[in-house]
Amino acid sequence: MDQPLFHVLLEGRKVGPYDRRTIVGMRIKKTLTSDHVLIGVDGTQLTVADLIGRPAPKPFNAERSGSFSIVHATFPASLLEVEGKGADIPAFKGEIEARVQADVLRLAGRFRHGLGWKEDRVKLTLKDVVHARIKGTQVELWLRSGDKAPLQRVCLELFTPEAAGDLVEWFTSATPYPESAGAPAAKASDRRGMWVAAAGISAVAIVLVVLVLVAVLHRRF
Q1: How many angstroms separate the Cα of 77 from the Cα of each of 53, 98, 119?
Q2: 167 to each of 126, 142, 154, 164, how far by Cα in Å?
Q3: I need a surface site. Which of 8, 16, 142, 171 has the fewest CB within 10 A?
């Protein structure tokens, strides 16, 4: 299935053309921003954010499901990072679909598998999202799959601040991530280093005072 092509307007000149997947990849790699202007083959103009906000021309195979579930919201996104153990999330590459369903966040996309590509999906239970944080166009989620399970961090790129805010609103039980939780306490070696530095500064100050007194006394006598 052919995808429409777009030229990118850079510093007053057109480059390309590129298809949607290439433009999304350039946005993920920050080669393009959401505000860059695209020109279609028919002359229409739109931004990268407008293009990414549209549904992909060809749905993922992972769309097929044997069970019916209500879709509340769908967002184009990319998976930036997964940190910690918990949900088994494939290393999705390029654009993925983040879909909010009845009680889950469904991520669908493709990833490297052997010498080729494989398409798959993973469902994250909404109630497992303990903390959520927005950083511009990025959304960070901290999930806990059990009462005593460690937190797992998932970072998604939503391409626009508005989409990031809309996604986070669906995690009604999540609380803001405590910024102080990740601040490590000062180690004993660090404290010793601070004391040594302070002692060194004091010694230099004493020497300067002595030199000033010697100079003053020398002038008097």
Answers
A1: 9, 6, 15
A2: 11, 14, 14, 5
A3: 16
Same domain, residue pair 176 and 204: no
Q: Are residues 162 and 113 in the same domain?
A: yes
Whole-prediction pTM value? 0.63
Same domain, 73 and 170: yes
Boundary residue ending a domain (30, 53, 76):
53
Give the domain CATH number at 145.
Answer: 2.30.29.30
Beta strand pairing call for 116-125 and 104-113: antiparallel
Contact at 8 Å (CB) between 111 and 93? yes
The residue assigned the tokens 């993925």 is: 96
Q: Which helix (H) or strand (E) holds 210?
A: helix 188-220
Q: Are residues 208 and 144 in the same domain?
A: no
Walk along the chain (221 residues) and give the pLDDT tens digit of each residue: 456 788 888 877 888 788 888 888 788 777 888 888 888 888 888 888 888 776 555 444 444 444 455 888 888 889 999 998 888 999 999 888 899 988 899 999 889 888 888 889 999 999 999 999 999 889 999 998 877 788 999 999 998 888 899 999 999 888 888 864 444 444 444 444 444 455 555 555 565 555 655 555 555 55
Contacts of residue 142, Cβ cutoff 8 Å, sequence gap at least 6:
129, 130, 131, 132, 151, 152, 153, 154, 177
